[in-house]
Write a structure and sequence with these properties.
331 residues, alpha/beta, Quinone Oxidoreductase, Chain A, domain 1, Rossmann fold, seven-stranded mixed β-sheet, six-stranded parallel β-sheet, 10 helices, Zinc-type alcohol dehydrogenase-like protein, ER, cytoplasm, zinc, oxidoreductase
């Protein structure tokens, strides 16, 4: 089958077209014919840093497609089901014509989105959901009278996190964006207020007369850390997804702040007892999209799934200027 991967780490040019066998799949797995994929920052990081072992490495996590075979213990899906999911960092990726994935981290694709649009949803939706309802331990309808600061609101995670916070909690949402087009985008996503992360965040939040209880630190956490600790409420909560080299967490002690790492691959990586939580939340997100409560965060269709188009999509990710999500579809 067709796939795209790499044999050596490096720039986007190391991606190459491959011809590989269909993946073997286990008793809890689905074999999915991939119809759409998305590119995320994790793809770029792994391509540059994760050396392949035992042959070429196929990247890709977000996918939407059709189930063509099911394992002997599969209970929630049948051949012909249309699905979407964010994959497993410990297994071969979705940049392939067919992909094997554990049913417990798969959701039913929204009926109102085509495969390519649907592929832009899962990884960021899972990440945002787990930050709000896992790390921050919010429950639906709570948060009234409190606020959340979303740093990097125009990115993939920020775009869906803003929407989930507005749809399912009572939080006032403040999102950061630095360009006119990104500021317009986060307002479209539902942000109540927009501030510029290139400016003085502490002063801007003071001007809004808001002291966030929650901070979703989605980018450049090390650079923003002093401001985060300064502007957040005592006993506030911070969740981050990036990889800062150094964080002086001792500065968080006077305010008794809670600090959470969010890594959406953890459940699949460690086969946790609650793996099905990702299936359940994807199904809920799918229903919300079909009901019009959530909107697509896809802004760039990078064409069909070819090595040239995937290389270009990786380069766009590296630019740091992608708004929302990039997708590709069809082989």
């Amino acid at each position: 089958m067709k796939a795209i991967g790499y044999n050596i780490t490096g720039a986007a040019e190391v991606l190459e077209e491959l011809e590989i066998d269909r993946p073997a799949f286990g008793s809890r797995d689905l074999l999915v014919e991939v119809k759409g994929i998305s590119v995320n920052p994790v793809d770029v990081k792994l391509r540059a840093l994760a050396a392949p072992e035992g042959g070429a490495k196929v990247l890709g996590f977000d996918a939407a497609g059709v189930v063509v075979e099911v394992g002997s213990e599969v209970t929630d899906f049948e051949v012909g089901d249309e699905v979407f999911y964010a994959g497993d960092v410990t297994r071969a990726g979705t940049n392939a014509a067919f992909h094997a994935v554990d049913e417990r981290i798969v959701g039913h694709k929204p009926e109102t989105l085509d495969f390519v649009q649907a592929a832009g949803v899962p990884l960021t939706a899972i990440t945002a959901w787990e930050m709000l309802f896992g790390a921050f331990r919010l429950t639906e309808g709570t948060g009234k009278g409190q606020s959340i600061l979303v740093i990097g609101g125009a990115g993939g995670v920020g775009s869906i996190l803003i929407q989930l916070a507005k749809a399912l909690t009572g939080l006032t949402v403040v999102a950061t964006a630095s360009r006119p087009e990104t500021q317009e985008w986060v307002r479209k996503m539902g942000a109540d207020h927009v501030v510029d992360h290139r400016g003085d965040l502490v002063a801007q939040l003071a001007e809004l007369e808001l002291t966030p209880t929650y901070v979703a630190a989605l980018t450049a956490t090390d650079m923003h850390w002093p401001a985060i600790v300064d502007l957040i409420a005592p006993r506030g909560q911070i969740a981050l997804i990036d990889d800062p080299d150094v964080l002086d967490i001792k500065t968080a002690k006077p305010k008794a702040l809670s600090i959470h790492w969010e890594f959406m691959f953890s459940r699949a990586m460690f086969q946790t007892a609650d793996m099905t939580a990702q299936r359940d939340l994807l199904n809920r997100v799918s229903q919300m999209i079909d009901a019009g409560t959530l909107q697509s965060t896809v802004t760039e269709h990078a064409g069909t799934i070819t090595v040239e188009n995937l290389r270009a999509a990786h380069l766009r990710q590296e630019s740091g200027r992608v708004i929302g999500k990039q997708v590709l579809g069809g082989w």
